[in-house]
Amino acid sequence: MTLTFGIRNGQLMLVTPLDGSADDATIQASVEIIRGGLKASCLPHGLELYRRAGILPRSAFVLVLSNDRTSVACLLAAMAMQCVCVLVGANRVALLEHVQQQTGLRTVVTVKHAEDCVHVVSNASDDEAPLMPWASDPAIADDGCVCILTSGTVGDPKIVVSTWESMRLQGQCTQQELFPDKPARVTCETSISHAYSINAVFALYMSKVDQDCELCFTNSTAALYEHLVERTDKISILFGTPATLTVLCALPPKKLYVDVPFCAGSRLAVQLFNQVRDRFGIQPMQNYGSSETGCICAWGLFQRSNEQEAAMMATEASLSYVGYAWPGVQVSIDDATNEIRVRTPWHSLGYVSEKQLQANDGGFHHTADTGTLRADDSGSVRSCGAVWVGSRIRAPLRIQTSSDVREVSPSTLEALLTQDHSEITDALAILPRNPSTMSACRVRVVLRDPQSSQSPASIAEWCSAKLGVPVNCIEVELVKQLPCSPAGKLIYN
């Protein structure tokens, strides 16, 4: 079952009903533990599967994968064979057409875990060049690349291009910070097709004690719960999201054994933080990054204690503390806009769009997040300092009136609705239907009482009067909750 989430009353909530019951057989069947080392066990198996399927070194294809041993094997084999590989999670196959249109890749390789094989479908003609023009860039042609889809919370998902070397470099840094000398048990609760959890795979792959580590996948909340109840002599690391923690909180309080409970996204609510700590005895550790930059900041780096990080979080209520920058990461704050700008050692090459590489210029990446940077006081010269994240930077809404063009800040419209309208708890200004024109302002709203007599038309009239703009310039959509990703990122589409 795929769980869906939303924001109501400013808090992340589970939309899909959760059945927490599961018998022991179901739990056992839904936990997969990969032992023996990714280099020694998974990689050779992936190479063999590709050999059987006729996939050659430096091939170019879309790889459809899931969180399982066979998918990990095929991912690592694509790296070893220097392939050009676009990752698509099995739960996002609806995006295949979009991916193929943008990249020009005609071959799709689907991992079949239950059958221990890969299924290859290709409609490329014999006389067609094996690589599209974007893949001829020297940085890609020499060693291949891996492409990752962004979340798609703002417009269509972008296709981010990274070298395999950048994956290895980031994995090595993660391993050195999280489990430098001792084997780890890493549990992934987000897709390894995403930038967040693919790093978990490469952290294990780059470890000197890889053969003694474990990579774990669960496919139910009950399975994850029972898995984390078990003690381990390894460092227990969880790659989760606010959604992971939210569904865990629907289960009975119990001590969970997690040394490093990483949480993706940059806005872990204090209420959820306290609930997880009080119910399960673990303190979530904020992790901040992006598909374009990889890891930027995290709690717990440089041997900082839980107490130190919790104290830092409490120093600023209006901003989210996301930890210290990883070694080698450069962070700066734009003086004019307060935007966080980032450059990382494992920065992506750019985007693929319309079969062309839109390469970045090697400078700082604009995150579209406001924030602040505090100079390093961690005792380590390897970090540029601690980072707090504020609000999202969004373009103003442009409204064509009978006499002029009005610009309204999205946050102003949202605050107007949630603070001045007694029946609205949440509001989100979303992308216009046609960004190139001054179409109606679109806003999603959540009513305090779902049975309220308020209609989209009545709310639009109220907004029109408050803003002094024609009522046909306001388009209101009533929703039960604001749609968001498992990481808590609001969806602006």
Q: Quaternary status of these chains?
A: single chain
Level of helix content?
Answer: 25-40%
CATH topology of one domain: Rossmann fold
Number of helices: 13
What does this structure look like?
- With 493 residues, the chain is of the alpha/beta class.
- Among the domains are: 35-162, Rossmann fold; 397-483, GMP Synthetase, Chain A, domain 3 (2-Layer Sandwich), CATH 3.30.300.30.
- Helix content is 26%, strand content 29%.
- It is built from 13 helices and 28 strands.
- It has a twelve-stranded mixed beta sheet with strand order 3-11-10-12-13-14-15-16-22-21-18-17, sandwiched between helices. The chain has an eight-stranded mixed beta sheet with strand order 7-6-4-5-8-9-19-20, sandwiched between helices.
- Helix 2 packs across helix 3 and helix 6 packs across helix 7 (195-205).
- The longest helix is centred in the N-terminal third of the chain and has 16 residues, at 38-53.
- The radius of gyration is 23 Å and the shape is globular.
- The protein starts with a strand and ends in a 10-residue tail after the last strand.
- InterPro entries: AMP-dep_synth/lig_dom (IPR000873), ANL_N_sf (IPR042099).
